[in-house]
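Hi all, a correction to my earlier message: I attached the wrong file for CoA transferase. Here's the right sequence:
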Amino acid sequence: MGALSHLRVLDLSRVLAGPWAGQVLADLGAEVIKVEQARSGDDTRAWGPPWAHDAQWGDEPQSAYFLAANRNKKSVAIDIRHESGRDCVRKLAMQCDVVIENFKVGGLKKYGLDYDSIRAVKPDIVYCSITGFGQTGPYAHRPGYDFLIQGLGGLMSLNGRPDGEPGAGPVKVGVALTDILTGLYATVGILAALAHRDKTGCGQHIDAALLDVQVACLANQAMNYLVSGKAPQRMGNAHPNIVPYQDFQTKDGYIIVAVGNDGQFRRFCEALGHPEWADDPRFSTNAERIAHRQTLQGLIQGVMRRRGTRAWTIALEEGGIPCGPINSLSDVFDDPHVRHREMQFKLPGGGPEAVSLVANPLRLSETPVEYRQAPPRLGAHTHAVLRERLGLSCAEIEALSNARAIRV
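and the right structure:
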């Protein structure tokens, strides 16, 4: 029994931020009912190749993108534009503790599925709305996508090679990181709202915005600007506040070195064969190393090219210096530590082959994460959910299907 096995969640979201929040809750034991557009489902079902095939999906192979954020969920395919369809969704909401949605601001009001409408009949509902820009403000009605928000929220101004270097220019992060972070913040907000409900009996509305999250997650870089008044610049793989904290080219590749204090720097200099650098007034403290960054980087780079990445990794680890290679994904999933932590696992689907997925990183000693089922085909649970939760008969479900209000 997962920590959240007493909860039921109605997931009206699609793409990534909302589904990610729903998947985290599902992994922790919550029953998550994913309501999808009856004909096409979640947008990401079509975001392939690559595709995964399994007997449970029949002629509907799943995109890898959809698989990333929808395990442990029940798929119910309902057309909320149809009166009977949205009536089913409202009734399901009445039986849920949490609703997650990422429609445009006000987009669900006309269907009677917005927060005010649901709260009127279920005051203890925890209702999380995820949008690009939030429920208020001059941009509230704009659509928001991760790439756009990475640019607007300042992340791309920090990411990429500095001006003057080959390949200079702003670059987005290779994963939709703002969506993921928003999903995690939404999950934290949902759990906080549930704790408040447990004490007071009152639900509440959570307004989660991608742009807010992106600005919040600028973290030390935002504070560097607010304290100094100077906007940080792109630095490639270097760090604005610590030196040396970057990648260096070796004889056969690259290695990341993360020196976090003066003691580590001294041991680093010893491993390089230049202990005198640690006592050089230009490099003896982190502040001085930042002031003489380019000089020190040049000296280190000249030494690092003499040996291969593996040789340096062994030597630096022996000296207690945080370091490591820049792995490809094949390297990542073949790494002995990643394998030991079981970050890749297989979940049985409906056919002879299991579906490979990436594990949830949470390790709870008493209520461990549960992997109950692979991401479902569109509408896989429509019949069961409507029958079990709403008490509809087979004939009533068939009538809804014939009216194209649902898909079974």
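Sorry for the mix-up. The first strand starts at residue 8 and ends at 11.
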